[in-house]
Amino acid sequence: MPSILVIEDHIVFGKALVRLLTEKANVDVVDVVRSAEEALEKLPNLNVDLALIDVSLPTMNGIQLVAMIHEMFPRLMCLMLSGHLTPFYVKRSLEAGARGYVLKDDIPGVIEGVRRVLDGEIYISDALRDQGV
Amino acid sequence: MASKNNHHKLDQAPKPTKKTKTIEAKGVVEPSNRDHGLTVVGIGASAGGLEALGRFFDALPSDTGMAFVVVTHLQPDHESHMAELLQRHTRMTAVQVTKKTAVEPNHLYVIPPNHHILMTDSQLDTRVYKEAHDRYSPIDHFFRSMARSGHPDPIAIVLSGGGTDGSVGVKDVKEVGGVIMVQHPEDAEYDSMPRAALSTGLVDVVLPASDLAQKLSDYIKHRPKLPHDPDQLSEEDTETLHRILAQVHARTGHDFSPYKRSTILRRVERRMQLNGFLTLDSYLGYLRRNAIEAQAMFNDILIGVTNFFRDRDSWLALEKQVIPRVVKHNKNGELDEIRVWSIGCATGEEAYSVAMLLFEEADRQSVRPRVQIFASDLDERSIAHARDGLYPAAIEADVSPERLERFFVREGEYYRIKREIRDAVLFTNHSVLRDPPFSRQDLIACRNVLIYLQRPVQEQVFDIFHYSLHPGGYLFLGSSESAEHLPELFSVIDKPHRVYQAKPWAGEKPRLPSLPFTLRTGSRTRAITNEIPPNLTRFTADAVDLEHHHQQALESYGPPSIVVNERYSILHVSETAGRYLHQPKGPISSDVLTMVRSELQLELRTALFHAFEKSKPTVSRPVSVEINGHRRPVIVSVRPLTQAASPENVTERQALVLFIEDEVAPDQSPQQMNTAHTQPEMNIMVSQLQAEIQRLREQLQITVEEYDSSTEEMKAANEELQSINEEYRSATEELETGKEELQSVNEELQTVNSDIKNKLDEISRAKQELEDLLGATEIGFLFLDRELRIQRFTAGVSNLFNILPSDRGRPIRHLTHKMTYAGLTEDAEQVLRHLVPVEHEVQSEEGDWFLLRLRPYRTTEDKIQGVVISFVDISKLKVAEQEIQLAKENLEERVRERTQEVEQANQKIRQVRDLFFTLFHSNPIPTSLTRLEDGMFLNVNDAYLEFVGLQRENVLVHTARELGLPIAENIRPTIGAQLQRAGMIRDLEMQVRRASGEMANVLASIQLINLDGTQALLLAFIDITERVKAEQQIRSLAYDLTKAEQEERRRLSQILHDDLQQRIFAVKMQLLTLSDAYQKNDLRSAEVDFAQLQEWLDDSIAMTRNLSIDLSPAILQGDGLTDALVWLAAQMENQYGLKVTIESNGITARYEDTLRILLFQAVREVLFNVVKHADTLRAKIRMERAHGHTRLIVSDGGIGFDAESILDGSKTAGGLLNLQHRLNLMGCNLQVNSKPNGQGTQVIIDIPQDK
């Protein structure tokens, strides 16, 4: 079972997300951390297949984190999670090394995204693709 | 016997036409090597010469066969490239001479620098020159050496150059028959050297440089083929030569036939060559056609060539041996003046040289004799030159610097002889052969004149010299002339230098020797041309010779004969007549009766008596005479000789006595020889006859004795008569001598007279000119003597005085004048007394004005001789003066009028100006007037001064920049352009600096105005600083509000996104899980999810409620701030757990909405900061009143921070800073006191009471 690290600062949403992933995506959520700094602190000791990263994080944001992970752990897949329907963030994220970008309210997309990225594909929410990403 | 001696001298002077082979004097004049070999051409050039040389050689063929020597002035210490430079212009070989070099034809030789180049024989040599640079004259040196080298026919060419170098050397060249060519001065770049050469009058050809080359090559081609010896001329050529001389004689009045033929022939040959004629005939034709040529020939023959101290050694000899004696002689008081005659003086150098020596000697002996030098020459031009006394600077070569200093005055490139010397010399046109000589001379200098004359003429001239010289006087001849062959006339003083002394004449004064040419009638310059054709005279000479032979034959074969004169003196004895004569003892006698044999005495006496008294020939009876031991009868035949041998001897009769022996006189013999009778008869007869004879003899003896005694008496009487006659003769001769002396004196007088006449002419011309000048200037002059008598006056005076030429000598006061001026005489006397000029303006009766000047009349000796009065007509001047006065008054009147007008206008202007200034200065709007150019203040008004804060005296005349008040420097270019275009700018907002440095915003109006040609800016402005500040505040407030609003929105957006949205996302996800659980019928899980969902939705609802309160707290709708703060405190505790206590001190703080909301927001922001940063859960709000303020203090006990750095624009304090700004704008103040030391933070807000 693929293992996943979730980086999400909102506790309530984090809880709902872990439940959804565990139930529907058939993955093992190894841990939920609330900031990029905490993620970078824990990652060397974790063996995860995927990092699910919220774009809006306090201090260091998600896109900066992806860039660092891509630098430090090149084999770790990253999937971005965001409430913002902003194509600009998508582009920046992919440039920083993310393998996909899903919107938080696109719940099927979240599940599909995790699965696809773990399969080595690149995935972006349909709503964003409609916007021409 | 004196007369005999004179005859002897006359006999000694042969006729000039007599044919004699002339012996030429050896010397410089006739070079011996006259082989027409190599002709040397010396070319002198200096400044501008290279160009001329280039043209010369360009035009010259390279095969002329001549050798050329180029002498130039070179820089002494520079290498010369002259040879290379000239090589470009000729195909001849051009070389610089550095050592002895043989001269070759078709070669070009160039002088080396720092050297003289000299010619010796046929070689060129060089010599280092040692002279001072200003006396450097290499051209003269070379020309001289060329002349002396004996090289035939040298040619000297003078080209462009400064100075006078060459002009002395050309004389030497000319003298040896050379040719002188000179570049035309107008062709020469520097014409000084050509002009100096021309001034010698010796130049043969004057042409441009290139034409000179052509002329030279023509000249060398046209060499006539004439023999050197005139005797070798053909008959026709001799005749032609004579015609040529006759032609010259006719044209110039000078007969050159006594001149040496060879010399004449050479001159003619030279003229022919110069003019391009090859035969004498063709030249004669040219001479006849061309009048000038005769003069040229004349000049050529005379060659007026001489130099100062020519032949230095000879002059030195003269100076040492002769001059002191001449001067000393005078010192002894024997003569009152020194008289010298320079013959053939040419251009005067010789005469001046003698004069210089005499003056120097006089200086040495400290005497001042009168020196009179006669200098004579044939050539008028030369004499004119000599009289001028002007010589080229090149004479420096001949005259020492001391002499130049003592005797000359420098005039540019020339020296002029000083007056002192000039006055001692009398120049005259005089021919020694033709005109009576000057007498009583102490020294005659006649150098290189005799050599041109044929020898017989020379000897006549020596006679003349001897006559002219004072006994013991000196003769100074040229180096080729000599007087040694006349020891009876001259003794030798210095043989090598040709100085002789006249021997005193024993006995009476010699008579004037005959002049070779006395063809003078009236004018001395024109001679009658009745010459005897020489060949005819020669014919006569031949006839004389034949006669002589014939005579000799007759003498040999005829009977013995003697010729006696009437005093019975034997004049001539034939060859064989000696046997009839014998000299008895006693004194020697020429008396024929004494000398004839006694047997013949009686017959001869009778016969002679008959011959002289009756002029009848007589034949005596035969007389027996014993000759050589045989007795022979001899007949004496006497014939009077009536045909006189010479006209002079016409008074002295002669008789021829023939002695005929018996055999040749047969007709007489029978009668004479009949002595053979019978002896007895004979004896008686004989005795008778003897007695008779005895008686007769005795008788005869008595008669004879009587006769003899009467003869003796007669003889004595005769002798007495003879002596009387002698006395008469000598008296006549003395008279003649006296007459001749008078003639000499006359000659002198004429010379002096002509000189005086020249001067007189000059003076009268000057006088005429002066009079013309005075007439032309219309100035009247009146000359009065010391007694104020009229001496002289000019025409201008007669307008004012009733004066006539006859009034001269009358006192001035006797004359009436037409002037309104009474004090003329008194003024004149005053001038004489005080010698101070007097001036008056006087008016004549006609109304004309005159300027009268009286001044002492000084002679050149500064002697006061009288008074000169001049009258200058100044009427026109006066009229003009009056007109000017009138015009001046007129003008002054107009000026006054104008001045008044101007004054009025000025008054108006002043009024307007005062008004303007009042307006200007009282105007509250600051106004300045500055110069456009540099911003200098021309004027400012009081409002301006007040505005900038300066005193007037500190502003005016300074520029804005100097005062630190530049007005809108940055906009200057723009406004400048705009001003030029529109003239003015209105409503321009700009900044103005005050003296304090503060900047003020003003609204200005600028106008460009013209003040007397100066462009000036008139600036007026209103201070709008306050308005601008208010506007800025408004803008700033609007900005802050906008910013606060955005901040608020961002906060709301963040709340919505970061929290509410996440919750909604979570709800959505939970719903999916719930739905799954529901579908799986997993009720337990669904219940959990469901409860979870309910909780999250409740939270969300509470959140939205808080948010809406947050956005517009309901409590703010109420009355006071205090209530709102109480609510806020509850909110903070409720939401963030911060416990806030409020001490309101009863202050409700009612403010208008805007300020109240702002204060609320500020406190809330401070409390948020406490929540976020202070790390404490307690805060306190305190309100108090103080100093008319309401103070709101928010404090906490937290960790604190560095308020100064945080509030300095840090990002985290952004909200607080914004609020602080806004509060300031509302008139409130917010202050933060905090330090990062755990002492907490205190924020104080002061609100003015009136808000």
Question: Could you characterize what this model shows?
Answer:
The complex is a heterodimer of chains A (133) and B (1251). The longest helix of chain A is centred in the N-terminal third of the chain and has 15 residues, at 11-25. In chain A, strand 1 (3-7), helix 1 and strand 2 form a beta-alpha-beta unit. By secondary structure, chain A is α/β, with parallel strands linked by helices. Chain A has helices spanning 11-25, 36-42, 62-72, 87-96, 107-118, 126-130, and strands spanning 3-7, 28-33, 50-54, 77-82, 100-103, 123-124. Chain A is globular and about 40 Å long. In chain B, helix 2 (49-59) crosses helix 7, helix 10 (280-289) packs across helix 11 and helix 28 packs antiparallel against helix 33 (1214-1225). The relative contact order of chain B is 0.03. Chain B starts with a helix and ends with a strand. Chain B has 1251 residues and is of the alpha+beta class. In chain B, strands 3-5-2-1-8-9-10 form a seven-stranded parallel sheet, with helices on both faces. A seven-stranded mixed sheet of chain B has the order 16-12-11-17-18-20-19, with helices on both faces. In chain B, strands 23, 24, 25, 26, 27 and 28 form a six-stranded antiparallel sheet that branches. Chain A binds chain B through residues 10, 12-13, 15-17, 19-20, 23-24, 56, 83, 104-105, 107, and chain B through 1057-1059, 1061-1063, 1065-1070, 1072-1073, 1076, 1096, 1099.
Write a brief structural summary.
The complex is a heterodimer of chains A (133) and B (1251). Chain A is α/β, with parallel strands linked by helices and 133 residues long.
